[in-house]
């Protein structure tokens, strides 16, 4: 079976209700589905998704993080590079925001043809209360230079994609990162660490 095959070319599986295109799942999709989980749609009745019901998507290996040793590094096109411990971040102004998150791939399993990845239907969504410090304050303290275009966030998790070992990264434009609701979160039902680097991407 080749990945070039489109869903209609494959035999119909499931109940044939037409809710999803008839398709078999590739072994890679089954492995991802077993590793990750979606939110039970019954949880939509709650304003805040209960702990343990928020969707989970693990792109790469789960890092072993020692909180006492972890540091947030802000570097690149800044006037004053920062290196802050988790305790130092917790001493900064704290904000708590309810945030609804939806995976960009939500509904991927309904596509025909579809890319081989986590086969979400409609369950990759959830709302949590995230607590942390305003991102804008950190960037102002670091002094983002005028020629910076994006803020690049690099997680501690890494893995192989396209036969290349890479870190998990996402970016925001400087304008987006400076919005008042931008938050560097360190508390919720899901905890993680990252360091950010400012650059001209």
Characteristics:
201 residues; alpha+beta; Sulfite Oxidase, Chain A, domain 2; 5-stranded mixed sheet; 3-stranded antiparallel sheet; globular; disordered N terminus; disordered C terminus
Description:
It is a single chain. By secondary structure, this protein is of the alpha+beta class. The protein has a single domain (7-199), classed as Alpha-Beta Complex (Sulfite Oxidase, Chain A, domain 2), CATH 3.90.420. It contains four helices and eight strands; from the N terminus they run H-E-E-H-E-E-H-E-E-H-E-E. A five-stranded mixed sheet has the order 2-1-8-5-6. A three-stranded antiparallel sheet has the order 3-4-7. The two termini are 38 Å apart.
Name the CATH class: Alpha Beta
Q: Please, how many helices?
A: 4
Low-confidence stretches: 1-20, 190-201
Largest sheet: 5 strands, mixed
Question: In a few lines, what is going on in this structure?
Answer:
The chain has helices at residues 27-35, 86-90, 135-142, 174-177, and strands spanning 71-76, 82-85, 95-102, 125-134, 150-161, 164-173, 183-187, 194-199. The chain is α+β, with helices and mostly antiparallel strands and 201 residues long. A hairpin with a 2-residue loop joins strand 5 (150-161) and strand 6 (164-173).
């Amino acid at each position: 079976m080749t990945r070039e095959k489109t869903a209609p070319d494959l035999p119909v599986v499931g109940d044939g209700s037409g809710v999803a295109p008839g398709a078999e799942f590739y072994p890679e999709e089954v492995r991802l589905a077993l590793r990750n989980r979606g939110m039970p749609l019954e949880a939509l009745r709650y304003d805040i998704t209960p702990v343990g019901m928020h969707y989970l998507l693990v792109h790469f290996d789960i890092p072993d993080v020692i909180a006492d040793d972890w540091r947030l590094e802000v570097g690149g096109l800044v006037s004053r590079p920062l290196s802050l411990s988790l305790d130092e971040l917790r001493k900064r102004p704290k904000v708590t925001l309810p945030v609804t998150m939806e995976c960009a791939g939500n509904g991927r399993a309904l596509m025909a043809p579809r890319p081989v990845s986590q086969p979400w239907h409609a369950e990759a969504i959830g709302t949590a209360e995230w607590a942390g410090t305003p991102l804008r304050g950190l960037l102002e303290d670091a002094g983002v230079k005028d020629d910076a275009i994006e803020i690049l966030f690099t997680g501690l998790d890494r893995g192989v994609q396209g036969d290349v070992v890479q870190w998990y990264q996402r970016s925001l434009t400087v304008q987006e990162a400076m919005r008042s609701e931008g938050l560097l979160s360190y508390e919720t039902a899901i905890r993680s660490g990252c360091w950010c680097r400012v650059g001209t991407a």
